[in-house]
Design a protein that fits this description.
It comes from Adineta steineri. By secondary structure, the chain is mainly alpha-helical. The chain has seven helices and no strands.
Amino acid sequence: MILGFIAYINCANVGSQVFDWLRALSGLSSFFTWGSICACHIMFRLAWKAQGHTLDELAFVAPFGVWGSIYGLVLNILCLIAQFYIAIFPEHDKPSALAFFQAYLAAPIVLLFYIVWKIWKRTPFMKPSTIDLETGRRVLDTKELIAEEKAERKAQPWWKKLFLELC
């Protein structure tokens, strides 16, 4: 509720400028968020395979597998590149530092936070073979879960079965 009072900033003479900078801070956040999710899924699947596990051991498998995450990561990177190009060469305007930072401010901030975190916590870059996949893992009877899922699929309508087969 307290954050709702930020809307009253617009009553001030500089309100539109404040909102421009707030938008600049959050504008690329979804690209970084989804790109990170895709990268984590790719790394998880590489680690899962490198440590001798099979997909049958997982309770849930992404419909498009690791290729869906690769596709998503590439699209997020392409969007960040396109936004960078627009930030350097704004449409219908001359290039300026103000225009660049209002279009791309989130990127340097995310990079700064990442570098500071790596230095402060001294976390190593992980290899798929060294990632801990066991801590916090729930032990599931995957054979039982797979049997339940197959029974549920048999009870589904034909159109849903067709969709699941295509995915």
